[in-house]
Amino acid sequence: MANTENGKVPLKEEDKKKSYYKYYEQDLAPFDPAKMEKMRKGLTPDKALPFKDRNKLFDPGYFEDEVGWCVMPDGTGYISNLTKMPGVTVEMFDWWFAWHSLDDLRYTIWDPEDHYYARTMNRARALDPDLSPRERLWDTTHDILEDTGLGPEGLYINFKNPGDLGYDVSKIGTEACGTIVTGKGFGKGQPPLASPPTIMTHFVREIEGGIELRSRFWMGWTYENGRDVKALPDGIFMPPMGPMSLGMHNVKEFTNLAAILPKVYAEEKDNW
To answer: Which of 11, 97, 106, 132 could covalently link to 15 via disulfide, CB atoms 3.0 to 4.6 Å apart?
Structure first.
């Protein structure tokens, strides 16, 4: 499945009639080259946040390195990224994750060069008017096709209530944290290296004029029955290209989402 001549993923003809098609047509927001270079080079494992310490994200301030990736001594992969999102609110961010999986083009406008589709497998919940956007996402699974730099690859993300992945939910909605979008990711390829179980977390903090997004991926980890579980077999190490390419993709996609989300939300917030 190749990109079209304009370097973007192919669309169906009917997509051109949709109100948000214009975001597909426009150029992607330019990312910071210095930040992308930092992500390419990565960081040392001593600068990473171990999965067991994830609640330290609620602590004030920042870690020494908020942007980078590495392969940990136990073989698992780690990615962190910090994205400033001016004009974006907590409500917009929660809405986006509930909204975008209801139509392929919605995921594509997030990153028209790399996002083919994200399709909720729990459509009734995603459309339930009695639930908040945040609740509409919990316990749903998205079937996704995207290119993070290694060619189009299919994966699933099972989104969870943060408390179900070991986060201290009493601190959500405070100065420490506006919201958390988190879930278990797993690919459609052959484990353990092609599609290692991954815990994804987008941790949102309100700042003056918008929000900041602190993204974390722990590749080779999952959470079962209240326990952290290393899902990568002992002696197996993540190939560096996996976390590096995902980290660089994360810089690109969230730079563009930061640029378009305030307008998309204003225009489409009631268009489920």
So the answer is: 11
219 touches 121 (CB < 8 A): no
Which has the closest alpha carbon to 137: 225, 200, 51?
A: 200
User: What phi and psi, each to the nearest 5 degrees, are found at residue 231?
Assistant: -95, -5
pLDDT digits (tens, 9 = 90+) for 60-100: 999 999 999 999 999 999 999 999 999 999 999 999 999 99
Cβ-based neighbour number of residue 74 at 10 Å: 17
The values of phi and psi at residue 217, to 5°, are -130, 130
Q: Give me the residues paired with residue 54 across strands.
A: none
Contacts 24+ apart (CB under 8 A), 261-266: 261/85, 261/87, 261/88, 261/92, 261/93, 261/96, 262/87, 262/88, 262/92, 264/20, 264/23, 264/96, 264/109, 265/92, 265/95, 265/96
189 or 245, which is more confident: 245
What separation in angstroms does the CA of 78 have from each of 65, 109, 134, 182, 210?
A: 12, 27, 26, 15, 26
Question: Is the Cβ–Cβ distance between 258 and 96 less than 8 Å?
Answer: no
β partners of residue 140:
159
Q: Could you give the 3-state DSSP secondary structure of residue 214?
A: strand
Residue 180 has pLDDT above 90, yes or no: yes
Question: In this predicted structure, what is the pLDDT of residue 250?
Answer: 98
HSE-up of 136 (CA within 13 Å, CB side)?
24
What gap in Å lies between CA 223 and CA 230, rounded to an integer?
8
Among 83, 152, 157, 85, which Cα is nearest to 113's? 152
pLDDT digits (tens, 9 = 90+) for 211-267: 999 999 999 999 999 999 999 999 999 999 999 999 999 999 999 999 999 999 999
